[in-house]
Design brief:
About 35% of the residues lie in helices and about 20% in strands. It has 16 helices and 21 strands. Helix 9 runs antiparallel to helix 12 (about 355-365).
């Protein structure tokens, strides 16, 4: 639950990629989902009108389940989306449906094709259909969609395919016609086309994918120090498929990275917390595996574990014109490898489309870590996690006397606005701009969380100690 996001969703204007619906009308929701899939993706907020005023949904959890079931059965071809319940501080609820860019256009509901125009969902016209067909042609030229020449049944791990089919059906995101027939399962996932397995099938389910595509290998290295020339205590190159690689990365981190023993303020009970939040690391691994550039023979992915940080590099750059700051806010889901990402989504390795990076940031801040850092360049993208110990040391060194004085007055859960911060410091102590800078730095240090937006912005003290 993120009350700040709740307020931001209601404050947005209706646009090409943002729609408000007052009720959980399944056909209306499906029309807009199709329109977003046929365009550049988008978000539907159900339970509010275009002014942002709430129109409560009865039994929101049941409504979300019914909407997901309706979309799964009626939107063609098969597509991904996520439906989640967001809550405010006073337990008001909205249903949020995040829709990525569709790669199998045109999408339709009950035989009709829809698109977005001037912030509205309208029937597609001939020019719209022409654009969608061109998009589909370009999509089919992606590396992951190409035929993996020479790959036969024995080159794929059919046991893993069957496990995936079982988990997908159990998770409720798709039902296969014949879930015990691995080739048919792969066909329904667009991984077996015209009698040929695709490159994505090898990445996801290959027994030895590096024999065909060496760039699928992942290297994980542990260093005792940042200094060059020192002995490396652990170094392993993984030649497994995506799911095997993810499992091995998690296993290594669990076994090689310890826990930080701390004592809570005012409590003599030892509080063993992971040095890093493992969910965030796992999400970082998944993102690297899904978004890397598999088309480049010189591409790859590496995980480096240092005494005070972990870096995850993959050979995929951020989408064109994106900046690191875009990852910190709501953004459309634009996967580099949509077929690979779709299988991960159906298998529930990812849950909320377009929100993985935000959830990483939120969890790290709750765990008392410095905000993770993404850097992107010509060779790829690097995600850096800073350890709890270094985060704490950096935060303490960065705090000024004003911030320290205010923190002494706050307990976990206390909320302050900029005006209250200024009142506490005394008249004319600092400018409003300086006050905002102070509070935002406390947010970056994980000591406070920013909630709401605009005039409703406030800052809440976390339970992290200095």
């Amino acid at each position: 639950m993120n009350p700040g996001r709740f307020a931001n969703l209601l404050a947005a204007d209706e646009s090409e990629d943002h729609e408000f619906l007052s009720s959980a009308d399944k056909p209306e929701i499906a029309k807009t989902v199709c329109a977003f899939l046929n365009g550049m993706g988008g978000r539907i907020v159900v339970g509010a009108d275009s002014t942002g005023a709430l129109t409560p949904i009865a039994n929101p959890d049941d409504a979300a389940s019914q909407v997901e079931d309706y979309l799964r059965k009626n939107v063609l071809p098969v597509a991904a989306w996520s439906a989640t319940i967001e809550k405010s501080d006073d337990d008001a609820t909205i249903l949020v449906i995040d829709v990525p860019v569709g790669m199998a256009k045109p999408y339709m509901i009950h035989g009709r094709i829809w698109c977005r125009r001037a912030g509205a969902t309208v029937p597609a016209e001939p020019d719209d259909l022409s654009r969608m067909i061109q998009d589909r042609i370009h999509s089919d030229e992606r590396w992951e969609r190409r035929s993996a020449l020479g790959i036969v049944d024995d080159d794929l791990d059919f046991d893993e395919v069957l496990r995936a089919a079982e988990e997908i059906e159990k998770g409720g995101r798709y039902q296969f016609a014949k879930p015990r027939e691995p080739v048919l399962v792969l066909s329904e996932l667009s991984l077996h086309v015209a009698g040929q397995y695709t490159n994505a099938a090898v990445v996801l389910f290959g027994k030895n994918p590096t024999a065909v595509f060496p760039q699928t290998a992942v290297r994980i290295t542990l260093y005792e120090t940042d200094k060059r020339g020192k002995e490396i205590p652990f170094d392993e190159v993984l030649d497994l498929n995506l799911f095997g690689t993810l499992g091995r990365l998690v296993e290594i981190v669990h076994s090689k990275v310890g826990v930080a023993a701390e004592f809570r303020h005012g409590d003599w009970q030892r509080d063993d917390q992971p040095v890093y939040p493992f969910w965030s690391l796992r999400e970082g691994f998944i993102n690297g595996l899904m978004h890397r550039d598999y088309s480049s023979p010189s591409g790859g992915m590496s995980v480096n574990v240092y005494p005070d940080r972990i870096t995850i590099w993959n050979s995929g750059a951020l989408p064109k014109d994106w900046k690191q700051s875009d990852l910190m806010k709501d953004h459309p889901s634009m996967p580099r490898n949509p077929d690979i990402a779709h299988v991960c989504f159906l298998r529930r390795y990812i849950d909320k489309l377009g929100r993985g990076t935000q959830l990483i940031v939120e969890e790290c801040q709750r765990a008392g870590l410095r905000r993770p850092d993404w850097t992107s360049g010509p060779t790829g993208t690097t995600l850096t996690f800073v350890s709890k110990q270094k985060s704490k040391k950096s935060a303490q060194q960065a705090l000024n006397q004003r911030q320290l004085a205010v923190l002494e007055k706050l307990s976990a859960g206390d909320r302050w606005t900029v005006a209250e911060y200024l009142d506490t410091l005394g008249e004319d102590a600092v400018s409003e701009r300086t006050a905002r800078t102070d509070l935002n730095r406390l947010v970056q240090a994980g000591l406070m969380v920013r909630r709401g937006s605009g005039k409703n912005t406030f800052y809440e003290r976390t339970d992290r100690g200095l």
